[in-house]
């Protein structure tokens, strides 16, 4: 796999929400209208993930047709997860709707509309059986397919598999759900995991987090079966760690996004290294870091920015765990995927 | 002038703060240390403009050497003006220092360190006299050279000029000061204006705002004299307005940056156009707008994004005034530079 393929495979945008074919989503307009009327709301904020932002105007039209004197505001902030709420818009609207992600933390101020997929997963699961051995299998999926999770489990059990599932931790709403940064639901007693969902973003993270497990991808969106191969990513991680070993001046990034803050971790690094500087930002991009004259960066925010976008930064960008290796506090063998736990 | 030259000439980064040669700035450390001690501050936030972000670590080091148990945090958010405070960092630190811009609005929560230039302006002013006729001349400069404004005035008066200066409006701290978005200080009774300062960003805006005046640039940073020529910019503006005349679906951008909000203006457009949608964001970038399936955009935030970065957006991007022309509410002759007034 080339660098470019690896990046595109793990690209944050390539998460199954940006679809090649058109699809009808259920925007749950009734629920939104009810909430607007209940609260007598004047301002309604809508936040969509990147791949669905272009549906915003049509949803706004549908709402305006049913609501008088209600101002609809679309969030133009980048959004890659429920960790990534547009808090500015949320605080300035009476009803705030976050589409496409399951709740990371329930709140009366937010309506989460999950946007479940209506694609039939069974044909691709059937195809994926060629890659599974009999017996124990873990089962995970994303928010978009959670509505069919029990059917998936039953379908596998009817074919003789012993299906292992877990709820994971606080960050995950549902049993069997994975996030790009959290695979606690795959901490199960099986050497193979079936991932049902679109894109390679999630299963690649899963394969990095659980290198001992065979991760079979049944992708009903692109209608393809494959095995998640984290090797290219791991090579890139080792290369970045090695490059950063010579670094003197470190930029330690504290991400200000509501669900991506690990302040204690960032602060601990800075307190123990006189050549480390705390930098706060919301979007962590190559452009923004270019302005800082650092030898290397540690990102305490979204680990997927570090692993997937890493090669695009002008200087090595490490996860907190990788930083400990680079500065010699831990052995190279400790290199592992940086998962994110808790909410806010 | 090619598109590329025009863009680089007006580039937001090219404002004289990003210097080719090294320069010693006065970071006013004593003032910061005094304030930290007075407030018994635990957390200090530092915000630098883009061209000076790389000085952040050295300033942090100097402060850490003088202060015990104080955490220094550097803002990694893009920053192009005093309109652009990192309010997240400001609200979470006991002392917040904004470098490189004069106050748009005084506040006890903010220490503004202007970073005055120590470059000698007289040699380049002498050279600029070749481009000035005798008699009346307006004089303007930027925050970086305000400390020498009275010397500039005296120098011109001693050479027989009648010097016209103005304070401008609330958005401007000082007499004779211009901002990239506000040239009220050049509303003076003279057909020529001498701009003393680095870069072409400010004088090009000035020439757009006052097309009837000859704007002579005396640039002591790059040691060059020239005449501000807004023609290329104006051509681009006309082209954008023409392209947008066919637009059906409009994205109306409300910028959430503290000093760039014109909500009433944005709302008025949306209320009077069923095919207009309000989009909220902080950084207005081509990437972010790419996700929205609009035919054209109106930007109620920073006018320099519209005029200077305009050609980089995938769809026409207009100022509110240009929008009125594109939809037929006003004649083409009304096209003018979009200046920004007031604070927040």
UniProtKB/TrEMBL annotation, chains A, B:
Q: Which domain of life is it from?
A: Archaea
Cofactors (names): [4Fe-4S] cluster
EC identifiers of the protein:
2.5.1.108
Reactions catalysed, as given in the entry? L-histidyl-[translation elongation factor 2] + S-adenosyl-L-methionine = 2-[(3S)-amino-3-carboxypropyl]-L-histidyl-[translation elongation factor 2] + S-methyl-5'-thioadenosine + H(+)
> Which GO MF term does the entry hold, naming one?
4 iron, 4 sulfur cluster binding
Copy the pathway line from the protein's UniProt record: Protein modification; peptidyl-diphthamide biosynthesis
GO biological process terms held by the UniProt record: protein histidyl modification to diphthamide
Q: State the UniProt keywords alphabetically.
A: 4Fe-4S, Iron, Iron-sulfur, Metal-binding, S-adenosyl-L-methionine, Transferase
Query: InterPro entries from the xrefs?
Result: DPH1/DPH2, DPH1/DPH2_1, DPH1/DPH2_2, DPH1/DPH2_3, DPH1/DPH2_euk_archaea, Dph2_arc
Gene3D superfamilies xrefs: Diphthamide synthesis DPH1/DPH2 domain 1, Diphthamide synthesis DPH1/DPH2 domain 2, Diphthamide synthesis DPH1/DPH2 domain 3
Q: Which family does it belong to?
A: Belongs to the DPH1/DPH2 family.
In UniProt terms, what function does this protein have? Answer: Catalyzes the first step of diphthamide biosynthesis, i.e. the transfer of the 3-amino-3-carboxypropyl group from S-adenosyl-L-methionine (SAM) to the C2 position of the imidazole ring of the target histidine residue in translation elongation factor 2 (EF-2).
What's the protein name? 2-(3-amino-3-carboxypropyl)histidine synthase
């Amino acid at each position: 796999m080339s660098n470019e393929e690896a990046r595109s495979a793990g690209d944050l945008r390539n998460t199954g929400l940006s679809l090649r074919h058109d699809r009808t989503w259920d925007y749950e307009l009734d629920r939104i209208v009810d909430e607007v009327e209940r609260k007598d709301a004047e301002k309604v904020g809508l936040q969509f993930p990147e791949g669905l932002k272009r549906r915003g105007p049509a949803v706004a039209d549908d709402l305006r047709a049913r609501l008088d004197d209600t101002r609809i505001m679309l969030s133009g902030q980048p959004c890659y997860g429920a960790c990534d709420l547009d808090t500015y818009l949320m605080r300035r609207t009476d009803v705030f709707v976050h589409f496409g992600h399951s709740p990371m933390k329930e709140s009366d101020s937010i309506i989460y509309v999950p946007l479940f997929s209506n694609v039939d997963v069974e044909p691709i699961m059937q195809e994926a059986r060629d890659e599974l051995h009999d017996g124990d299998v873990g089962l995970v999926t994303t928010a978009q397919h959670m509505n069919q999770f029990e059917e998936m489990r039953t379908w596998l059990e009817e074919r003789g598999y012993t299906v292992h599932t877990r709820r994971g931790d606080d960050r995950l709403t549902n049993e069997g759900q994975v996030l790009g940064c959290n695979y606690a639901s795959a901490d199960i007693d099986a050497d193979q995991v079936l991932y049902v969902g679109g894109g390679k973003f999630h299963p690649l993270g899963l394969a990095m987090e659980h290198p001992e497990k065979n991760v079979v991808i049944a992708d009903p969106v692109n209608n393809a079966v494959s095995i998640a191969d984290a090797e290219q990513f791991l090579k890139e991680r080792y290369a970045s760690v090695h490059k950063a070993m010579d670094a003197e001046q470190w930029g330690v990034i504290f991400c200000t996004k509501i669900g991506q803050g690990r302040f204690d971790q960032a602060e601990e690094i800075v307190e123990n290294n006189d050549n480390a500087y705390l930098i706060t930002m919301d979007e962590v991009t190559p452009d923004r870091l270019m302005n800082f004259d650092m030898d290397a960066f540690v990102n305490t925010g979204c680990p997927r920015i570090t692993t997937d976008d890493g090669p695009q930064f002008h200087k090595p960008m490490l996860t907190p765990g990788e930083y400990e290796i680079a500065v010699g506090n831990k052995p190279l063998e400790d290199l592992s995927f940086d998962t994110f736990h808790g909410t806010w």
